[in-house]
Amino acid sequence: MTTPPPPAVEIDGLTKRYGDRVAVDRLTVQIPRGAVAGFIGPNGAGKTTTMAMLLGLLRPTSGDGTVLGEPIQHPERYLGRVGALLEGPALWPALNSVENLQVLARLGGHDQRRIPEVLDLVGLGARSGDRFGRYSLGMKQRLGIAAALLGDPELLILDEPTNGLDPAGISDMRDLIARAAADDRTVLVSSHLLSELEQICDWLVIIERGRLVYAGEAAALGAHTEILLGPAEPADLLALAEVVAAAGHEAGSIGEQLVVPIDGADPRAAAASLNRAAAAAGIVLAELHVRRPTLESVYLRMFEGEVA
Amino acid sequence: MIASARAEWARLIRRRVLLGALLSVLVAGVGGATIVLAAAEPAAKVPPGSSAPTLEGLATSGGGTQVFRDVVGFGGTLVFVVFIGLFALEFSRGTYRTMLLRQPRRIRLLAGRYLALVGFVAVGLAVTELVTWTVARLEASTFDVAADSWTSLAAIGSGLRDYATVLVWLAGYSVLGMTVAVLLRSVPLALAVGIAWAGPAEHLIGGFWASAEKVFPGLLLEIVGRGGTATVSATRAMVTAAGYIAVAAVASCLAFARRDVTA
Question: Which of residues 113-172 of A touch B (CB under 8 A)?
Answer without folding.
Answer: 147, 151
